[in-house]
Amino acid sequence: MDNMHFLDQAKIYVSSGQGGPGAVSFRREKYIQYGGPDGGNGGKGGDIIFLAVEGLNTLIDFRYAQHFKAPRGKGGAGRNRTGAGGVDLVVKVPVGTQILSEDKGHVLFDFTREGQRAMFLEGGIGGRGNASYKSSTNRAPRQHQPGEPGEEAAVWLRLKLIADAGLVGLPNAGKSTMINKVTNANAKVGAYPFTTIHPQLGVVRHKSREFVLADIPGLIEGAAEGAGIGDRFLGHIERCKILLHLVDATGDDPVAAWKTVCKELEQYGGGLAEKPQILALNKADLLDDELMESIASDLKKAGAEHVLPVSGATGDGMDEALDKIIEAVGENSSIEQKDLPVASPQEKDTTKDWSPL
Ligand SMILES: Nc1nc2c(ncn2[C@@H]2O[C@H](COP(=O)(O)OP(=O)(O)OP(=O)(O)O)[C@@H](O)[C@H]2O)c(=O)[nH]1
Ligand SMILES: [Mg+2]
Question: Which atom of ligand 1 is nearest to the CA of 171?
Fold first, then answer.
């Protein structure tokens, strides 16, 4: 994905269509001077519907289009003709998008599968035409209604990428080098911190299986509170089933590096600290085995369960790491699950206080 065209949050304004007005009309027939009422009802306004679609890993389009207004219903007409309904407006969002209240306090919908669809704002119903007011006591009513107004709301779209496994580590740990080695991604690599400023996805093909790996910007102490590039990108690994934690073996203090990142995952919350983790001691190509082993044993003394020596540059050790990921991902990686039935999205909770405009 092109870094310049990544956007993971956008505010949009949506409104459903107003109902069309009911008509006032009377039949005109050749030999009847004064026919009965025949004004039809107005049509319903268009709904605002959200639909999750595949193939867009960014909300960038919403930077340029922020207002979505469904058309109004057409007015009723004589001869009891009901006005045409306004066409529903379908707002397409990438899979992984959450729809949040304007104050960001509530998740209204969480789209995790292609094809999920949710009705958000219903169009106003059409007004009654005068024909509907006819009664035994009023044979020539002139009553009619305007259409009901539509609804308006402002909502935030927040994209949380769908990946099966996520790369975490301090800046310069070698995350982007690794994703480039094992996937089709072409992430920027640099010998300086914060080379990566946007998350990036790549597809791993390993032993006839496929899964999606995410590379995110490096984490530093305080990242969970917004330091460095901040906590915002941690959201993109929330949906991962496993994390590949890279520690630079050539760094000043690999044990401290490992602990710092673990602490940030814990402080961020969102279940990140509870996810299974593979601790990969990276850049093994630069150190001799003895030194690698001594660092690994320091990590184990500090509480690490299993330390896997790897090199993202040469690919050494990566087979074992990928085997473990495949195992954790199980049968349904995010790209292999296409044929499963589509689950229905979270119901819209009308008790939540998202604020209409
Ligand atoms: N020798 C060697 N160098 C590596 C390896 N992995 C990464 N590097 C180097 O380490 C530096 C940082 O690599 P990146 O892949 O950009 O690191 P990163 O974790 O993505 O860094 P940020 O995006 O800044 O968080 C670059 O100079 C890489 O060439 C490795 O396995 N072996
Ligand atoms: Mg990087």
Answer: 25
From ligand 1's centre to the CA of 312, what distance in Å? 8
Atom of ligand 1 nearest to the CA of 312: 31
Ligand 1: does its nearest atom lie under 6 Å from the Cβ of 285?
yes
Return per-residue pLDDT of the chain as tens, 357 residues.
444 578 999 999 999 999 999 999 999 877 766 689 999 999 999 999 999 998 778 999 999 899 999 999 999 999 999 999 999 999 999 999 999 999 999 999 999 999 999 999 999 999 999 999 999 999 899 999 999 999 999 999 999 998 999 999 999 999 999 999 999 999 999 999 899 998 999 999 999 999 999 999 999 988 888 777 767 789 999 999 999 999 999 999 999 999 999 999 999 999 999 999 999 999 999 999 999 999 999 999 999 999 999 999 999 999 999 999 999 999 888 887 655 444 444 444 333 333 232
What is the value of pTM for the model shown? 0.83
* Structural domains of the chain sorted by starting position, each given as residue range(s) with its CATH number in brackets: 3-160 (2.70.210.12), 165-329 (3.40.50.300)
Is residue 273 in contact with ligand 1, taking CB distance under 6 Å? no
245 lines ligand 1 (CB under 6 A): no
Q: Where are the beta strands (DSSP E) in the chain?
A: 9-15, 48-53, 67-69, 89-94, 97-100, 107-110, 117-121, 152-159, 165-168, 200-206, 209-215, 242-248, 277-282, 307-309
Residues linked to residue 308 through DSSP beta bridges, in sequence order: 280
